[in-house]
Structures are given as structure tokens and as C-alpha cells.
Amino acid sequence: MNTAVATAVPARPPGFWQRATANRGFMIGAVLTLALVATAALSLVWTPYSPYEMNIPGKLQPPSAAHWLGTDAFGRDVASLLLMGARASIMVGVIAVSIGLVIGTAFGLLAAARRGWVEEVIMRLADFGFAFPAILSAIMLTAVFGAGMVNAIIAIGIYNIPTFARITRASANTIWSREFVLAARACGKGSFSITVEHVLPNIMSVLIVQATIRFAIAILAEAALSYLGLGTQPPQPSWGRMLSEAQTLLFQAPLLAVFPGVAIALAVLGLNLLGDGLRDLLDPRLARKR
Amino acid sequence: MSVFLFKRLITLIATLIGASIVIFLVLEILPGNAAQILMGPDASPDAVQALAIKLGIDRPPLERYWNWVSGMLTGNLGLSYAYSTPVNELVLERLALTVPLALMAMAITTVLALVAGIYAAANHNKPGDVGLMALTQIGIAIPNFWFAILLILLFSVKLGWFSAGGFEGWDEGILQGLKALLLPAIALAFVQSAILARITRSAVLDVLREDFVRTARAKGASQRRTLWGHVLRNALIPVITVMGLQFAELLAGTIVVESVFYLPGLGRLIFQSISNRDLIVVRNCVMLLAAMVVIVNFVVDVLYSVIDPRVKASDI
């Protein structure tokens, strides 16, 4: 008779990376986002041709071994323009989201820490911010200062502030009601120390997820503004402007209108999947609810 | 009037006043001498002064702001510099295109999203649900102006069923007008319906897990009756909230999509006015769009309390 007693060892919960590799959406999103970043980084050191070099005799060529995605109306290599366009998208996305993240989070944290009329004023201002979609802010800035990438970044950044303020305040309020915050107060810590040492680290995952999703929205907004001529200006290549130029050549070169759109869609899809995946991984309770 | 409605109305008015102040500061005070901007740097000082008097911009800022606001309330928005036409006439003419376009897009969005969202929830985790959710994920990632270009490529360039753009006006017949707006409305609706379908699915799934749904099923109500009779009304609350926010996105989207289809709507008027440095038109159009966004959100808040009376009760 076997007398060995099987000891019940509780199974170790899977770690972050194990759960990450098992999450298909996260992995697809991570690969697409890495590809976007790698593309933009590559364009810093190498592009197949100069994206600024025009070659009128070689205009509107179909995809070939020499020009993988063909050439545009000025004979510029489309693959090189797409590589450079990724850089513009990332730059606008990073700066615009940072503006929203820093200012919006600061206001959200202040609202949660102070409560009362301060919270009321900040939240009403955030509500007010929703009256101005990014494109309206961009129109106003363009009407006064002229079109350009900086104005597009400011407009998209302003548009992001109310969202970050609302999300930060809602998440921070939950942390402020937790017992460990009460304990910190009992130890004599002030609002600022509690915010920096306890509240901010605990809402970081929510902010990271939101920043990823807002990055995707910023890329879409930048493309739309550049398409309208309010964003990135020539000769700097941008996906939105490539589409605007391609639209005039739909009958002669329809493919020119396809590649930049696919690039935008893949970048946005990647960031959205990454954001959804991160949310599932950082807050498994939400994943179970979905 | 209930306290709820009164409080919402006060917030609405305060937001509109705030928006008008921001717009006035950015488009009237920040640029400096608007007459100089309109006439260019080479204009003579006398001509600039004459134009400033004609446009009323030689007056103190507070007086100008008050004139503008009272003008909006009485329907007198001033004279366009570029068109020499009253701004309200210009705007009304363009709204005759932009409003039907936004409404058509909202109607298509609602139908597509509700059908897809309810179907996906009723078939939770089955291939139909998985396929639809994958499609919505792609829909959310596609820029509406690119989708508009793809629609032109397919239906105008390849199939020749629709014109690639332009609008003959409603005088040519309502059907002709609606046909001209159909592709732009679909382009606007596709992305928004992808977002709304996901919200609808998740809201319906949440309600399906409620006890009262189980009770209804236990009492012998069919799945179809439970879904349409009990689940949908409760699931509509978050759906309507998102629809309100989406209307703002749709209005912003019309500006872009009008450019793709060369439609003479409010968006095109704004861009033409920016090129003409006609700030008075830009200012009024931006105010109008911001007001539409704020008013739609107010209506959503009120609708929200009609559908779910708990909202009103908790607010008081």
C-alpha cells in the first residue's frame, strides 16, 4: 500500500509575462505597436530613397522591385514617405498625449485631494472642454496662427486634458477612500505626500492604459488634421497629407490612396489592442467582466 | 420645472457663456488687429482704420463681445468680409446640408450598432459574436476620411453608382439630395457604429446577467420577449449616453468628410473662411458647432433621466 501523502501545493498564479503571452489581442497589439516604433526609428537612419527627392519622369510608377510601393505624383518613393510619416505620427501622438497626461492628471489629482468647490470647478471645466472636439480647437488655432504641426499638437493636447482629468479624479477618489490612505493620514502625512506616495502609484496602470488608447486617437486626429491641411506641412511627409494628395489621383493611381490608410489603420489597431490587453493584464477584474 | 432640469439648464447656459468667451478671446482678441489681418501687411493705415470702423472692431472688447452675443440672440451675426453677405444667411444655407448629413449618419449608426450589438450579445462567444467584434475593432481603427475615399474608389470609380462628390442642392429633389449624402453618411457612420455596437453588446450582456431577467425567463417569457421587452430598455441607458458623445464626434467628422466629398456644408465654409481670413465667419461657425455639441449633451442628460428615473432622484 502506498503510504505517500500527496502534499497539496497551491498552484502559483501565472506571472505577468505568462498572462501576456496567453493574451492574443495584447500580443498582436504589441507586435503592431513595436512595428510602428521600429518603422519610425528606422526612418531616422535609413529610407530606401530620400522622401524629399522629386523625380517627375518617374512619377506614378506601380509597385516594383525598385519602388516597393510605387511612386507618387512627384516621383517620390511611397515606401520612404510612409516610413517618414510614421515618425510624424509618433511625434504628434507622444507630445499631445503627454500634454493631456501631465496637465489632466495634475488637475484630476488636485480635484480628488481637495474635494469641495475645487473639485466642482475642475470637473465643470472638464465638462466644458468636451464642447471643443480637437478639430474645433485646431480650426481656431489655425485661423489665428496659421496651419502647422505645433498647432495640431497643441489642439490634440488640449482635447486630451479633460479626459485625463476625469479618469484621474475618478480613480484617485477610490484610492483616497482606502484604509491605507487613512493610515497614512493618521501618521500625519499631508495631502501632497499622500498623492505622490500612495495615490499616483496606485492609479498608474489606469493612466498607462488610457495613454495608450489616447495615443491611437491622437494618431487619427493628426491624420485628419493633416488631410485637411491643418497639421503637418510640406515637405515633411505625413500619412494624412499623403491621402489628401492621393485623392486627386484616384482614377490614375488608386493604390496611392490605399497604403497610407492601411498604415494609419494598423497603427491605431495595434495601439487599441495593446491598450485593451494592458487593461486586462493590469486589472484582471475588468477582464472577467468583459 | 423639476430641480433636475433647472440645474441642467443652468449648467447648459454657463457652458455656452464660457464657450463664447473662449471663442471670443481666441478669435477676436488674440489675433490683434483683425482689420490688418484681413487686408494684409501692405494695406495703408487709413484703409485698415476704415475697415476696423466698418467691422466695429475699433470698439472696446467688452462692447464688441456684448454686441456679438446680443447679435446671436437676435439672429444678427454681422457681415462676412469675404462674401459681403450676412453671416446668418451663409450659415443657414450651409446648415441645410450639414444637419441632414449628421442626422443621416446618426440614424445609420444607431441601426447598425443596435442590430450588431444585440445580435453579438444574444450569441455571446459564438462565431457570430467573435466575428462582429473583430470587425468593430477594425472599424474603430479606420479613419473616417480614408473610409470615405475607399467608398469613392469602389462606388464611384469602379462601379460608377454614385458621383465622387458635390451636391446639387435640395431643389434637384429630395431623393437626389439624399443620394448625394448617402456615401458621406455611411463613411461617418461606419466608425461610430463600430464603437456603439461594442457598447451596446456590453450593456446588453450586463443586463442579461441581472436577476429580473432570470425571473422573466423562469416565468416562461421567451428569449426574444425578454430581450426586447426587458433587457433593451435597461441596456439603452449607457448606449444613449455614448450616442450623445458620438454626435459631437459626428459633427466634427462632417467637417472632414465634407472636404472628402466636396460638399458645400459648414465645414467647407469654415475652411474657405480660414483661407479668406474671414474671422467673423469662423468665430460664428465654431460657436455654432460648440453650441450644438453642448445642447445635444444637455438633451442626452434629460433623456437619460426619462429612461432611468433613478438618475433624477439621485441628483436631487
What do these coordinates show?
Chain A is mostly helical. Helix content of chain A is 70%, strand content 0%. Chain A contains eleven helices and no strands. Chain A has helices at residues 16-22, 24-45, 78-114, 116-129, 134-145, 149-176, 179-186, 191-227, 239-247, 259-282, 284-289. The model of chain A has no long low-confidence stretch (mean pLDDT 88). Chain B is mostly helical and 316 residues long. Chain B has helices at 3-29, 34-39, 45-55, 61-74, 87-122, 127-141, 144-158, 174-208, 211-218, 223-260, 266-275, 279-307, 309-315. In chain B, helix 12 (279-307) packs across helix 13. The longest helix of chain B is centred in the last third of the chain and has 38 residues, at 223-260. The model of chain B has no long low-confidence stretch (mean pLDDT 87). The interface between A and B is large, with 41 and 48 residues.
Mean pLDDT of chain A: 88
Q: Which structural category do the helix and sheet elements of chain A fall into?
A: mainly alpha
pLDDT averaged residue by residue of chain B: 87
- Intertermini distance of chain B: 13 Å
How many individual helices of chain B? 13
Strand content of chain B: under 5%
Intertermini distance of chain A: 49 Å
Using the alpha-carbon principal axes, give the shape of chain B: globular
Number of strands of chain B: 0
Determine the most extensive contact between two protein chains: A-B, 41 and 48 residues
Low-confidence stretches of chain B: none
> What would the principal axes of the Cα set say about the shape of chain A?
flat
